Amino acid sequence: MTKAVLEIVNPGMMATIQDFGRFGYQAKGVPTSGALDFVNLRLANRLVGNEEGQGALEFRIMGPTIRVLADSVRIALTGTEAVIELMEPVAKRVPSYQSVTLQKGALFKVGVTADTAVAYLAVEGGFDVPDVYASQSTYMSGGFGGFEGRALQVGDLLPLALASVPDRHEQVCDAPLLLDSTDPIRVVPGPQKDYFSKAGLKTFFSESYVISGDSNRMGSRLEGAPVAHEKGADINSDGIVTGAIQVPGNGLPIVLLADHQTTGGYPKIGCVASADLPRLGRMKPGCALTFSAVTVAQAEKARRLLEQQLAQSIAAFKAVPSEQEQFWNHLAECNLIDGVVGS
Amino acid sequence: MAVQFLASGDTGLTVQFGFDVDRALSAQIMALRAAVDDAGLAGVIETVPTYRSLLVHYNPMETSQSKLIAALKPMIAQLDSGKNDKARTFSLPLCWEGDFATDLTHVADFAKMSPEEVISVITQTDYFIYMLGFAPGMPYMGDLPEALNIPRKKVPVKRVEKGSVMVATGLTVIYPSANPTGWHVVGRCPVPVFDLGRADPVLLSPGDRVRFRAVDGAEFADIEGRVADGRFDLEELAG
User: Fold this and answer.
1) Which tens digits make up the pLDDT trace of B145-183?
2) Which of A28, A187, A275 shows the shortest C-beta gap to B136?
3) Is some CB atom of chain A closer than 8 A to the CB atom of B172?
4) N or C: which end of chain B has fewer CB within 10 A?
5) Residues in chain B with pLDDT < 50?
6) Which H or E run includes A282?
7) Chain A residues lying within 8 Å of B26, measured CB to CB
8) pLDDT at residue A191 above 50?
């Protein structure tokens, strides 16, 4: 029996397995990790019939090329305008936000994602990799989680939980959450906003910043106007949430992302509202962004709204007719059947 | 000072007790941590103690900042910072022979002591673990006597080895893995503070206590060997 695996022909860029992250161990210094864009992780999983937080493949800017070595596998790509390019057995393009079932031997690739920094490829049943601290998320700096604690490499055989998938209609998401507004990223000031001068706070909430190329899953470094401190740039260490914005001595903010360390010694000017973390996660190096100050209550309300929109998007999934059904539908639309019957 | 509730976005509430590295402060933070963990409040995901604060991570879909503050206030009013039932004491081996203690002479010069005297102070200190951070399993331990309050290096070194025991600013850390550092290396511990081969990879917890025991190169090699092939029993570290 051949193993139920996906053979990585080309890993693309920084392809790692990510789920919602690793919670409950931050007091031990273990970062949460998890998907940079939880909205698209959830949509990808739902499209293939998984729980929303199942581990999926997250990749950055350049997608992977993969050969299917399981009997069959159902996959879905989200987070990008790029398509699944099926190369073998037949050349075919499958749009993102739609599931597709591939048989053993199929070869497909996901090209460059022009529109987003991260995209997700979910497989029905998920990957057969062990939980480390109750999560499949890859934490590369620590070398654990996901597939051998690292990004995928050429030749990796990524094990699948299911050797084959049940036959059923594919699903399409007609209304994905594009989150493509250029509105400011909403930030709750604090916990150390008092470490910054009035002028520094004004700079941060009025200037435009650009995401530096020196950014990764740990954090996005920002280029732009330096933020002035008032009480210095060192504090005795304090806890950190995902989206916290540290400002070190050079005044250039760093937004901490999924792989951020659990505690830190730079003052934090604010923390990104959780509703805007997926939008931030989608921004590529070179993207410009601005920040606006919101209250905690406003941030909590924004998150509830995002969850409502996500639930609506999922509720609006449609079954994709099978190719045979599409053929008959097409005939019916052309009125050929009536014509034949009536002749 | 009065306890302050500071927003960490809409997923974290920072309960700030002060600003300094101080045992009395830490005892209050640990006591609140125990109280919050025991209370099992709806929506609370986990709590992270630091020198100055307790960060309560929460799910904004299950609770809110205002609900949390309302639940925490009475707990803070009744804090019993005298007890920490879960605290353990560890006796950790420390070897300063050979090239394990690359900065010991520098630290000794700073403290106007001999290297032997520095090690003597370190091994006679009852360390308290204030917090874990920087990397999985890394303990921030205090407090060294004033004489050893050496500042961090101005220029960090690019790599020191896993297990390095390092001092700076009155505190001591043990590196879980090889990393850059600005701290001063005074020895090496052969028992890893983070080891994925163990049932719980992280050895120490905030609130635990540590006492170092000087070992020679032969004992270091013996322990390191037994750790490597899984024959080392953590019970040996009971202090």
Assistant:
1) 999 999 999 888 999 999 999 999 999 999 999 999 999
2) A28
3) no
4) N
5) none
6) helix A277-282
7) none
8) yes
